[in-house]
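Exercise 3.2. Students should predict the tertiary structure of the chain below and write it as structure tokens, then compare their answer with the key that follows.

Predict this chain's 3D structure.
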Amino acid sequence: MDCRVTLNENETFLEFLKAYYHSKEKVHLLVDDEGITREEGFIMNMDDGNISSEYIEMDSGIKIPVKKIVAVNGVFLSQFGEC
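Answer key:
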């Protein structure tokens, strides 16, 4: 069984995403939106208000709710830790 680097159970990707946003580094994401999709690019804007409305806006113009992100630059949610 393959194991991956994961967040702790109660963590979200919000702090990771803020760091990449402020450092203007490229992000590689896996997003669970009725199936797993890949997105990559630069975060152009962030809404980090309350937990139910947090999202990022990519340089492609797509807006992604943080709660739908399952991996950021090789770090996965804990439930995606094994394959």
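Discussion points: The chain has a mean pLDDT of 87. The first helix runs from residue 14 to 23.
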